[in-house]
Structure formats: C-alpha cells, structure tokens
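Lab notebook page, bench 4
Experiment: in silico fold of construct C2
Operator: M.H.
Input chain length: 106 residues
Purpose: comparison with the prior construct
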Amino acid sequence: MNEVGNNSQLVLDPDIDSYYTMDASVVQLRNLAQKLGVAGDMSAAINHRKQITSQERIDLAVLLSQVTTFGATLGDDIQQAGADDAQLKAKLATGMSAKGITTLRS
C-alpha cells in the first residue's frame, strides 16, 4: 500500500477527489484491514481458550473504537471523493452497493 501511495503521484494531484480516493484506498483501508485482522486473531485465541481476560476486553473495546473511526473516515473519504464528480460518485455507489455496503457511518 505504501508503494501505491508513494509511486502513484496521487498525493501530488491537485484534484480534491483524487486526494480523498487516495486516502481511502491507501490509508484508511489499510488501517481498517490491520485492526480487523488484530481483532480476528484475538477473537480466535479467546474462542480457542473459551475464556477472555480483563485486558482482552479492554483491547477489544479499543479495537472496536479504532475500527469504527477508520470505517467512518473511509465513508467520509468516499463521500468527499464523489462530492464534486458525479461520475465517480455513481461508480463508488455502485461498487459499495454491489458489496452490500449502504453506509460506513452509523
């Protein structure tokens, strides 16, 4: 993901829709995937032991907060990317609805 961000020239693109598209795909999706992976690993370990520690409860609560924040930011980026470009907005909406995503902001 860093290579995409560094070599795509999107960071230097003056169009605002490019910035938000880049942030969504290079930053927010990576952050979201990483935190979901950590949560999945923790959940698997807890399920295997059939027991959760106090620290794991805290860690999962923190992860939930982080996932919620990254998901909301991702949704905001997608909305901003399409705000000034009707064609991009339609493509993003089509892609999200095809995946069963109606909104990332609760």
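Observations: The longest helix spans residues 16-49. The two ends are 27 Å apart (CA to CA).
Next step: discuss at group meeting.
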